Each structure stands twice: as C-alpha cells, then as structure tokens.
Amino acid sequence: MCKVCGDDTHVSQDSRRHFLRNSALAMVGTLSMRLAVAADARSSQAPNAIPPAEALKHLMAGNARYVANTPRERDFSSGRPARAKAQFPIASIFGCSDSRIAPELAFDQGPGALFVMRVAGNIVTPDLLASLEYGVQFLSTPLVMVLGHTGCGAVDAAIKVIKNNTVLPGHLPGLIDAIKPAVVEAERVPTDHLLDAAIVTNIRRQVAQLKEAGPIVAQYYQDRKIDIVGAVYDLKTGVIKQV
Q: What's the rounded Cα separation, in Å, for the pair 25 and 29?
C-alpha cells in the first residue's frame, strides 16, 4: 500500500527505495560470501599450504643434499613469470647476516621457497618482526626457523663486552645488548666452550621470544597454524641441526 495515497495497487517511492536497497544489500552479501569462499579455496590450494612438520622435513632434506654436494638441478629462468605473480614460501628464515651462510643454498631451495630476514646475531628486532609478521599472515609460511651458526661474531663480541669490558663503536652496543642475556644465561652452566653454548642459548631465547610476539606471530603459533624452531649452521661442515 502506498503510504502517501493509501492505494493498495500503488507502491510508494519509499517502498521502492526500501526494496532496491535490500536487494542491493543481499547481492553484496552474497558476493562477499562467494569471495570469502574463493579466498579460502585459494589458500588451501596454495603450494605452501602444508603442515609445519612437512616444511621442516623439506628443509632438512635439502640441507642433506647440500652437505653431500648433490643439489637438485634447477632451471631458474623458467619459473620467473609465475613468481612475478605470487610467492609461496614454505618457511620464514630468521637468520644471521654472516656472509658465509646462504639459506637458499644451505637448504637447497629455489627462488620463492624461503622468506628470509637477516640481522647480525639473529636477534628479534621490531623491523624484522614486522617482516616476519608479513610472511606469516600474508604469505602463509607454515614454518619459522631462527637460524644461528657456529663462530658467530656478534655473540663473541657480546662475550668480550661482558668479560673484558670491550667498548664497541657506532650502533653495535645496541645490537650486543640484545645478545648479552644469552651469554649471562650460558655462563650459569660450566663449559669449556662458552661461545658455542651462548650461540645455542641465544637461538633458543629468540625462539621463545617469537612464540610470545603478539599480536600476530604468537596467535598463529597458539592456533598451531605455524611452528617456530631453532637451528644452528656449522660453518665447517654445512650441517644444520635443530637446537
């Protein structure tokens, strides 16, 4: 009935607008649901939609090939058009900046397989954490690995600062301050190899910190969407071991 004239056969402009508005909202709602379902389907079908344990298995198998000097042969040019459209890394590598370590080589992975963040001493900083959050939330990397290495110069510098009161130049003191707690903790257990112990302790501390790094990484870890592990690279052998 028209609200203006009372005619049962006449539909008012307000009623028409109400009908059209509701119809439009229904169409938008349906479209949104379809887009959400499509996004979920794409996510579940992504090449890196694998369990964290499987991603870790891929990495360690690749390291075994690297150590044995039997890497897989790859045509690096053939996949460029596809990689230009999207990336699907199977792991985020949170590593040290040391020039003697190349994660893609050490794990025998091709371009697009690893999302790598590096800083001397493999310590968690706000900028690197932001990069890690991007990898976890928007690239859906199922695994996060903190990768340290033997003979780490940053950890060794932290030891010298504590034991010898060594004064470092520039911004190095701020970097070393983040590593010193690992040295102090490692010193509590008697050892003839403090550097090795501190390196492992530092890796474990960074792993623990990431597991509680809100709001993104910690939530993904608690929901078991990702795993966070630590490992050390042996400069002499190339072997990567979990710690």
A: 6
